[in-house]
Write a structure and sequence with these properties.
Blueprint lengths: L1 H17 L3 E6 L10 E3 L1 E2 L1 E4 L5 E5 L2 E9 L5 E4 L5 E3 L4 E7 L3 E2 L2 E9 L5 E11 L2 E12 L9 E6 L3 E22 L4 E2 L11 H25 L1
Antiparallel strand pairs: 1-14, 2-15, 3-5, 4-7, 5-6, 6-9, 7-8, 9-15, 10-16, 11-14, 11-15, 12-13, 12-15
Length: about 230
Amino acid sequence: MKTRLIGIVLTIVVLVGSAYGDAIFYPLQQIPIGGGNERVINSARDTVLPTMPLLGTVPDAPEVMVHFTSTTDTLSGGGGQCCITAQDGLINNIEITWPGFGVKHIIFNPFKPRVNGDLIVTVSFCTPQGEFCVDPGFKTLKYGAPTGNQNYMTIITVDGEVLTSVRVESAGGFEEFNQVRVDRSTITSIPPINPDVIPEPTSIMLVGSGLLVVTQAIRRKLKDAS
């Protein structure tokens, strides 16, 4: 009985883990993009209101339209190598998407945050497979250099996943969002995410609660057996 119960727990852990892909964060690092495939995203010379996209382009990939949006800030692009600022001087949140596409390697720099360790990065990803992009998931990391100046972040996916969005938040704000670079060779056209496989937060909580109950049952069984 003890072996059977432990097997149940291991099965649940594997299922929960294998339901999502992964992305590796490299805070305060610039992991080089090799093979001459590094491309700096260019932003439009424009100003947009909150929730409206500031457009960007990827050199040698005219089919890819990059969107920079903020829910709170009026964003301004300086044109050229993606130096984006906020009208009030500080960006509090910004999200990068490339509708219909995904990337596997990205580098960016939220420059000069006002509060140390105040940057929260959340990425969404999925795995292109047939007519859908499956195994959607997300991952979050909080970081920030004590110097408050350069805060480069590199994110690389593993096992075939692609990034569908990257969001940076900062309660204290940061002055610029710049030097956004992607690996041109990993830009992938992706199918839509299957809405039937997107787990809701309540579902995740139920799985966690179920795992806790089973774990407690094992402890009771082991205690009774001893």
